[in-house]
Predict the structure.
Amino acid sequence: MGLTITSISTTLTIASGAGSTIRFIPVWLQSAQTLNGVIWFQAATGSYTANNTNAVGLYNYLQNGSASLVASSSNDPNIWSGSYSAGNTFVTKSFTSTYAASAGLYYIALLASTSAVTTNPTIGAGTNLVATNIGLRQLDFTNGTLSYGVRATVGSLPGSVAVGTYLNGLTQNIPYAAVY
């Protein structure tokens, strides 16, 4: 997109060392929309050896406490690296096809998978006030659903997740990410 921001001071390491990590960020759509992909702030680009799948996805929250993958990008080994973005820049990644979303709760998934890291890629994030306030952990969500989640050892975007048990990243900063 070409917009450079230098004032975001809180960041989150998206990949460090060998392994896979998936992060879930909730997003509420007030009305039906056609979605094309995910946008985030790439604070610093990484230098790493990609492994398994590196991608973004969108999960539709279902009333039974689970979420289903409804849209995703292709696997992109360079998604978190300097060859994809310059750092201190908003970055977009398109889904493989547009998604006609209904109004409701969704989760953006950011998946980073590496076998080795020379430089940790970081993305813009906000301080997680939820970590220090038990009452905010579930906000107005049902079925044990939490407001942000992270899980290691996930090599690809799963087709569905049990949100209440899967999302557990309450002690980390929350990444800035949105759909477009």
